[in-house]
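Tokens for chain A. Residues wanted.
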């Protein structure tokens, strides 16, 4: 089973990458991955805590398989055991022009849970990916605005 979500962001690949890989700050902006710690270097591990719409926190460790600055972060993690629930996740940044990118999240699920609860898992993953993508866009676009005008209130865009 595979779930994909994408969004166009008015920011450079560098700006989006800096937000995406600043794991300690996830809790300040990310409505889906509520906490993440570790390193995004290939071979390292990231501890991830996801919030489901049921209010249940899901915690897993993911091994970083690929990490190409400003382009792609790819990891694989599992819940309990790989045979129970395993996910291989890609975060991809695709340049559209000098000031815009398309951010894509894609996850391939395997194991028992995806086989017996595929509709529920797909709905939860899509909801979480969409929420994270929207928040990543806002955070990245706010950073670009602040870089252009350091006196600008980062929350002003939402109230204009």
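Reply:
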């Amino acid at each position: 089973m595979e779930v994909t979500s994408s969004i166009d962001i008015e920011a450079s690949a560098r700006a989006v990458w800096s937000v995406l890989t600043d794991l300690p700050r996830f809790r300040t902006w990310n409505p889906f991955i509520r906490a993440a710690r570790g390193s995004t270097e290939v071979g390292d591990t990231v501890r991830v805590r996801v919030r489901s719409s049921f209010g249940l926190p899901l915690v897993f460790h993911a091994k970083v398989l690929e990490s190409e600055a400003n382009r792609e972060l790819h990891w694989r993690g599992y819940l309990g055991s790989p045979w129970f629930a395993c996910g291989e996740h890609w975060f991809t940044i695709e340049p559209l022009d000098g000031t815009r990118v398309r951010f894509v999240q894609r996850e391939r699920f395997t194991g028992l849970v995806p086989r017996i609860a595929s509709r529920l898992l797909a709905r939860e993953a899509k909801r979480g990916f969409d929420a994270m993508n929207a928040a990543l866009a806002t955070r990245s676009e706010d950073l670009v605005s602040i870089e252009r005008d350091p006196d600008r209130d980062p929350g002003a865009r939402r109230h204009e």
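Residues 19 and 70 are 11 Å apart (CA to CA). The beta strands are 2-9, 33-38, 45-51, 57-68, 72-78, 86-97, 100-110.
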